[in-house]
Q: What sequence folds into this?
């Protein structure tokens, strides 16, 4: 299985990351990737960029040195209502939006609250992907959430960084992947790179998927064109 688009990377706009957009793009080109998404953390995290960063990053896909660049964000889910930390006006102008839970912006609560938070986030028309959802701290009803993901044509992320820094989440990630396979839900495999040399690093996630026999046809980012086609399976509201 070959992944040709990295759908989740960070830059120095997030202070705990260490490379620029151009350094991420250069690494993607070295690896022969067709595309890379720039998805810095939403502004509710303490060291995240100002909201203006996301207003200014771009309103359409662009290409740099032969690599397609998706202008996006990893927004924070803030509560059980599925509230995220960028307004719809901004989200509508981004190419790719990941929604994730982080301790600094949503303290771990009950399984019911986590489930409701994911379900409500999935119903936000501007959110494309649920990010690194395997954490045991954020246990949720996987069947209920994934059924909504299927109904809403949203994607689930299998995050390679989880296998390195969130090892306690790996077992849940395997369960999530198996359920996506069973329910016919598209996934993306991402690096979650915070340093340019880690862009395009998918090996652990791909190994897990191959071990469980996950079908390549359900991996949306094996090519850039396939990713765009899957993202366009639902009709987003117009840009605001």
A:
């Amino acid at each position: 299985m070959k992944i040709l688009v990295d759908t989740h990377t960070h830059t120095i706009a997030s202070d705990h990351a260490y490379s620029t957009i151009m350094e991420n793009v250069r690494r993607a080109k070295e690896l022969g990737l067709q595309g890379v998404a720039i998805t810095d953390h939403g502004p509710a995290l303490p060291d995240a960029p100002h909201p203006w960063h996301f207003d200014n990053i771009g309103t359409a896909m662009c290409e740099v040195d032969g690599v397609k660049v998706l202008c996006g964000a990893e927004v924070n889910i803030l509560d059980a209502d599925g509230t995220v930390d960028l307004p719809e006006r901004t989200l509508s102008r981004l190419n790719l939006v990941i929604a994730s839970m982080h301790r600094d912006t949503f303290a771990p609560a009950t399984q019911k609250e986590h489930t409701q938070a994911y379900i409500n986030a999935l119903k936000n028309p501007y959110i494309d992907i649920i990010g690194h959802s395997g954490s045991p701290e954020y246990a949720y009803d996987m069947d209920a959430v994934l059924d909504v993901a299927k109904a809403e044509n949203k994607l689930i992320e299998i995050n390679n960084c989880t296998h390195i820094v969130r090892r306690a989440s790996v077992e849940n990630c395997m369960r999530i992947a198996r359920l996506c396979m069973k329910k016919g839900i598209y996934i993306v495999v991402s690096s979650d790179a915070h340093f340019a040399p880690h862009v395009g690093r998918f090996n652990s996630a791909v190994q897990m998927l191959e071990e469980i026999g996950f079908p390549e046809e359900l991996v949306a980012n094996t090519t850039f064109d396939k990713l765009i086609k899957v993202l366009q399976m639902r009709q987003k509201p117009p840009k605001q």
Observations:
- DSSP finds nine helices and eight strands in the chain.
- The beta strands are 5-9, 35-38, 62-64, 67-76, 96-100, 129-130, 155-159, 187-190.
